[in-house]
Amino acid sequence: MKTRSLKASEIQKDWFVADAEGKTLGRFASEVAQILRGKHKPSFTPHMDMGDFVVVVNADKVKVSGAKETDKTYFKHSGYPGSTTFTKLDQMRRNHPERIVEKAVWGMLPKNRLGRAIIKHLKVYNGPEHPHTAQQPKELDI
Question: In Å, what is the CA distance from 41 to each residue of 32, 72, 130?
């Protein structure tokens, strides 16, 4: 038997909607990352962008466990000396709640050009509405 590798023209991408309301952040992000990567497909190829598009709604209602709501910090550095920025999770939830899910999913993807291409298939929205109804996304049960 020979292992068959798919060509880029043979890859079919689907759209999924995932509701983050009441879900634990890490467990939810790992499921979304696997679908973005394409690991749920039997024809998964590690070096290709096989994954599907995922639309996350209600990102502002995602849960975290323990004392992470007050203790967890996000680190950012611009590259200039002394330009480090630390943001607490509760402040991030007030100002940009969609970035909480985006950063959690990005942490579970490869850090190369493939990962940068895959993260573009993630669409995160705060409320229950999203503008991707024309793609007829399927409900994702996570």
Answer: 14, 34, 25
* Segments of the chain with pLDDT less than 50: none
* Residue 109 to residue 25: CA distance in whole angstroms: 15
- Shortest CA distance to 64 belongs to which of 38, 100, 30, 36? 100
Q: Bridge partners of 53?
A: 15
Rounded distance between C-alpha atoms, residue 9 and residue 119, angstroms: 20
How many angstroms separate the CA atoms of 78 and 5, rounded?
A: 40
pTM over 0.85: yes
If one looks up domain 13-66+98-140 in CATH, what number appears? 3.90.1180.10
- Where in the chain are the domains? 13-66+98-140
Q: Secondary structure of the chain: what % helix, strand, coil (to 5)?
A: 35, 20, 45
CB-based contact 83:76 (threshold 8 Å): no
